[in-house]
Amino acid sequence: MNEIVLAKVSAKHADLAYLIGKLDEELLERYPGEEIFGIDVEDPKIEEAVFVVAYHNGKAVGCGGIRPLDHESTELKRFYVDRSVRKQGIAQRILDFVEDAAKELNYSILKLETGAPQFEAVHFYKKNGFYEIDRFGEYADCPSSLCFEKRLPQP
């Protein structure tokens, strides 16, 4: 069986923390000595964020989330799929989930930050309708940051 189940979770969920740890390990490999932009789960505003964990045959293998930026924009955060299950459509399912969550919360723009060493991610985002924008927010002064956005269709 090759079952994928998505579950909305809290910012402090153990499986989310495990996957974020794996993401951070991979980012440290790709960006040795550089700053990694995470998310502070102790921030009181974290309750405004929405997170999802993907399970493959019961094992946590992917995650993603959105956190509000302003009244019209939200940011894709901590988007990750374990290397062992990539290219099976899990990333697409997670992205679809968070896009739907953003639309349900009446956001019209989904933004994100990544970097050139994450060439697979850049390709995935462009394939899904994201286009490059100027660096924003905490990424404005980070020369290795690539920022993208996507306009979300409203019902």
From TrEMBL:
Q: What Gene3D superfamilies does this protein map onto?
A: 3.40.630.30
Q: Which CDD domains match?
A: NAT_SF
Amino-acid biosynthesis is among the record's keywords: no
Keyword list, A-Z = Acyltransferase, Transferase
Superkingdom in the source lineage: Bacteria
Where does the record place the N-acetyltransferase domain? 4-153
| InterPro entries linked | Acyl_CoA_acyltransferase, Bact_Acetyltransf, GNAT_dom
- Indicate yes or no for the key word Transferase: yes
Protein's recorded name: GNAT family N-acetyltransferase
